[in-house]
Design a protein that fits this description.
Largest sheet: 12 strands, mixed
CATH class of the largest domain: Alpha Beta
Number of helices: 12
CATH superfamily of the largest domain: P-loop containing nucleotide triphosphate hydrolases
Helix content: 25-40%
Order of helices and strands: HHEHEHEHEEHEHEEEHEHEHHEH
Length: 426
């Protein structure tokens, strides 16, 4: 278990992260309104670090191109899915979407090989979502050699999805998919850590066999078309384009019905509840993801009257018992105010997967509370829900007749490139 900073040190780290995130969100012209310490100390330090990162990144690519460093080939086609910027690009949902499609439509047993920022919560969530399908999910601790050995021993596995593979050069890939957050395609234009770019856009997009513009539902049609033209001007002509969005599909109650309360039995999530439960509701977010503002936008669209807590926690935040107790107290306070049709705590599937045991233990105890509700009746009690969402393809590349035809074209290209590999070493 990783050590979490505590006490004064934790508060200092939290404040520093907040300052860095605020600086990463703006370009140089907007730094004028920042405190002097941010303008003349933190921002310049981040700029220097970004320069060092750029040098390291360029040198690394050069050594791989020249053959000084070698990429390992796997004995089946590899489709890489990676981010241009940190967070909010829909990478993990798109990996799950592809795994589901290729295992069901093409009957291709698949391996998901996580790289880069692959974390425990993403691994657990992926395993839950793809349960029952012929998909083997390895976490980021699995080495490339271990992955190759697994594929040798499991010859029926016919496809590898390289999760977070754009900057992972040690593995050969046969198709490169680049995920772009259409709301802020290039962030503030700076590389990490001054900005959120993982590499320069031209370098990344010119390697793209497919490009996915995510969160297009958050843009006006004119802005969406402008971003698409901007990407098409950089990417190769053969690049396959997708436009996607995350669509909320339901709520799962974290509070079991009182009739099923049995502390010797793991209750887990309750039934799926309609999204209409959020109409006129006050929502307290327990959300630790890359772009929490997207969750807030969805809640507002679903008719929530009041939303708080979005953006309060870092990506991959590990909630403590005290934080949950404070959040429950806040829910009870809002409920007593009588201002809202309903009051609830809400988290994403990734948040729930990260700390399933803690959330189940805390919220199962609330089943006996007269002030809480499992959501399966008309009770006025406050609720606690996991917001379920699914990736939806809004627009496929119009050079193909359908969404399935576009996905099939990507697979054919990956298989053809795999067959043409003359340098594959097994």
């Amino acid at each position: 278990m990783s050590m979490q900073p505590t006490g004064a040190w934790a508060r200092l780290v939290h404040r520093l992260r907040r300052r860095v995130q605020a600086i990463q969100a703006v370009d140089d012209s907007k730094l004028k309104s920042f405190p002097a310490s941010d303008k003349f100390l933190v921002a310049p330090a981040l700029r220097v670090a970004a320069g060092l990162y750029a040098t390291w990144h360029s040198a690394r690519h050069f050594f791989y191109r020249q053959g000084v460093l070698r990429s390992l080939g796997l004995p089946c086609p590899v489709i890489s899915i990676g981010n241009l910027t940190n967070g909010g690009t829909g990478k993990t949902p798109f990996v799950e979407f592809l795994a589901r499609h290729y295992t069901q439509a093409h009957r291709m047993p698949t391996m998901i090989l996580q790289r880069g920022g692959g974390t425990v919560d993403e691994t657990v969530m992926m395993r839950q979502l793809l349960e029952g399908l012929p998909v083997y999910i390895s976490d980021s601790a699995t080495t490339s050699v271990e992955a190759r050995d697994y594929l040798r021993d499991n010859a029926d596995t016919r496809l590898v999805l390289l999760d977070d593979g754009l900057q992972h050069l040690p593995l050969v890939r046969d198709l490169e998919i680049v995920m772009v957050n259409s709301v802020s395609p290039f962030g503030n234009g700076h590389l990490l850590p001054r900005g959120t770019l993982r590499e320069l856009p031209k370098q990344a997009l010119r390697r793209a066999d497919a490009l996915v513009l995510h969160n297009v539902d958050l843009l006006a049609p004119e802005r969406r078309d402008g971003v698409l033209r901007q990407m098409a001007a950089i990417a190769p002509r053969h690049t396959i384009f997708f436009q996607t969005q995350m669509s909320p599909v339901g709520l799962r109650s974290l509070i079991p019905a009182t009739t099923s309360l049995d502390m010797s039995v793991r209750t887990g999530l309750g039934d799926v509840l309609p999204l209409s439960r959020l109409e006129g509701a006050a929502v307290i977010c327990l959300v630790g993801i890359g772009k929490p503002e997207n969750v807030e936008r969805h809640l507002q669209r679903l008719g929530a009257a009041h939303v708080e807590g979005c953006g309060e926690y870092e990506d991959h935040h590990m909630f403590g018992l005290e934080e949950l107790i404070v959040a429950i107290g806040r829910a009870e306070e809002l409920q007593r105010s009588g201002k809202y049709k309903h009051v609830c705590l809400l988290m994403t599937e990734k948040d729930y997967a990260r700390q399933t045991d803690l959330f189940d233990a805390v919220f199962s105890q609330q089943a006996a509370s007269p002030s809480s509700s499992s959501g399966d009746d008309d009770s006025s009690g406050w609720g606690a829900y996991v917001l379920q969402a699914a990736l939806e393809v809004v627009e496929h590349d119009r050079r193909f007749s359908s969404q399935n035809a576009t996905l099939n074209a990507m697979l054919r290209l990956a298989v053809d490139n795999f067959r043409r590999r003359s340098y594959l070493t097994i």
